[in-house]
């Protein structure tokens, strides 16, 4: 197995993303979640949308690790705008059988939305198998909405037994990190 590295910037960014959003949003919830359906209807809980990020990680028995520097889909180092990113050289196709590889999806992927009071995401197995890009609305019972885009590479990574980490669009002053896995 080749040695992989992660930059200090990416480590801190991922740490803050996972720990910070869990601690802050998990404790306080999403702003605007206490709004009524009238608030949502008159647009008072609206916001803006921005780019989304995607990270894939190989799942192993000892946990999930990614140690390579991240690059954007254009091959440039990632910036803080949430551009799509995957580790360089990551094979998100079907890697055959073995630990952490092979066709791992035989049911809908499990979804974890960090800081998610009321937000819901269901990714049907049929979407994973089709591999076509999909955009999902994760509003659920929340008073505001976020969109999540899953790309063909994300679906291939799920099929290969990898964890996919995506960021929702920005709305009501925040976004959500979403972890998807097929087990």
Describe the structure.
This protein has 183 residues and is an alpha+beta fold. It has one domain. 22% of the residues lie in helices and 20% in strands. It contains four helices and nine strands. The protein has a five-stranded antiparallel β-sheet with strand order 2-1-8-9-5, with helices on both faces. Strands 3-4 form a two-stranded antiparallel ribbon. β1 (54-60) and β2 form a beta hairpin. Mean pLDDT is 65; it is low at 18-28, 31-52 and 54-101.
Would you spell out the secondary-structure blueprint of this structure?
Layout: H1 8-28, H2 37-41, E1 54-60, E2 63-65, E3 71-72, E4 85-86, E5 110-113, H3 125-130, E6 134-137, E7 147-150, H4 152-159, E8 162-167, E9 177-181
Antiparallel strand pairs: 1-2, 1-8, 3-4, 5-9, 6-7, 8-9
Mean pLDDT: 65
Number of domains: 1
Largest β sheet strand count, sense and barrel closure:
5 strands, antiparallel
Question: How far is the first residue's CA from the last residue's CA?
Answer: 23 Å
Outline type: globular
Short key terms for the protein model shown above:
9 strands, single chain, alpha+beta, five-stranded antiparallel β-sheet, 20% strand, globular, 183 residues
Give a short summary of the structure:
With 183 residues, this protein is α+β, with helices and mostly antiparallel strands. It has helices at 8-28, 37-41, 125-130, 152-159, and strands at residues 54-60, 63-65, 71-72, 85-86, 110-113, 134-137, 147-150, 162-167, 177-181.
């Amino acid at each position: 197995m080749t040695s992989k590295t992660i930059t200090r910037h990416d480590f801190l960014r991922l740490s803050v993303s996972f720990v910070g959003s869990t601690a802050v949003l998990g404790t306080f919830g999403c702003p605007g979640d206490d709004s009524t359906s009238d608030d949502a209807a008159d647009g008072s809980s609206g916001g803006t949308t921005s780019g989304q990020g995607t990270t894939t990680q190989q799942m192993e028995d000892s946990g999930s690790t990614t140690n390579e520097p991240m690059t954007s889909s254009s091959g440039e180092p990632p910036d803080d705008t949430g551009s799509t990113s995957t580790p360089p050289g990551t094979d998100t196709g079907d890697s055959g059988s073995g630990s952490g590889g092979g066709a791992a999806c035989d049911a809908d992927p499990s979804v974890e939305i960090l800081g998610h009071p009321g937000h819901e995401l269901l990714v049907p197995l049929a979407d994973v198998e089709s591999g076509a890009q999909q955009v999902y609305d994760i509003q659920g019972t929340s008073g505001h909405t976020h969109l999540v885009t899953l790309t063909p590479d994300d679906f291939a990574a799920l099929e290969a037994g990898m964890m996919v980490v995506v960021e929702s669009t920005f709305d009501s002053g925040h976004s959500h990190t979403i972890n998807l896995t097929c087990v």
